[in-house]
Write a structure and sequence with these properties.
It is a single chain. The chain is mainly alpha-helical. Helices cover about 70% and strands about 0% of the residues. It is built from six helices and no strands. Helix 4 packs across helix 6. The radius of gyration is 14 Å and the shape is globular. InterPro entries: TerB-like.
């Protein structure tokens, strides 16, 4: 998990942004909720869905390196795929966060998304092979 490379403050910010993103389509799936729970448990963090006090502008400032920004986007896109698709509302939010990070390169965002999709494909193939 690349989130190991983040500071605790950055992990909390990722979790807060992810909780905000999960509720972007007004429907938090079981898989998204499980992801949030697993992430919070793994790093000893707390999260709250639909927290009106969350300000994305305040959260993005804790990501002070290009590496931390890419890891944050990867985690957000990974969450978005948990319900089976990277929906329009989720895409818009992720792209808005990328812009706030100063990562306005569409090719980079596409590479991160491909990275996430490849990971999901790898896990799916493994599960299929083990269940045969």
């Amino acid at each position: 998990m690349f989130a190991n490379r983040l500071t605790q403050e950055q992990r909390q910010a990722v979790l807060d942004m992810a909780a905000n993103l999960a509720s972007a389509d007004n429907e938090v799936s079981e898989e998204e909720l499980q992801y949030l729970t697993d992430f919070s448990t793994a790093f000893g963090l707390e999260f709250q869905l639909d927290n009106p006090d969350i300000s994305i502008d305040d959260l993005v400032v804790v990501f002070d390196t290009r590496q931390s920004k890419i890891i944050a986007l990867q985690e957000l896109i990974k969450l978005s795929y948990k319900d089976g698709h990277f929906g329009r509302e989720e895409q818009d939010k992720v792209f808005a966060i990328a812009q706030k990070f100063g990562l306005n390169n569409p090719e980079l965002i596409m590479r991160i998304e491909k990275w996430v999709r490849s990971g999901f494909d790898w896990i799916y193939e493994g599960e299929e092979m083990l269940s045969e």
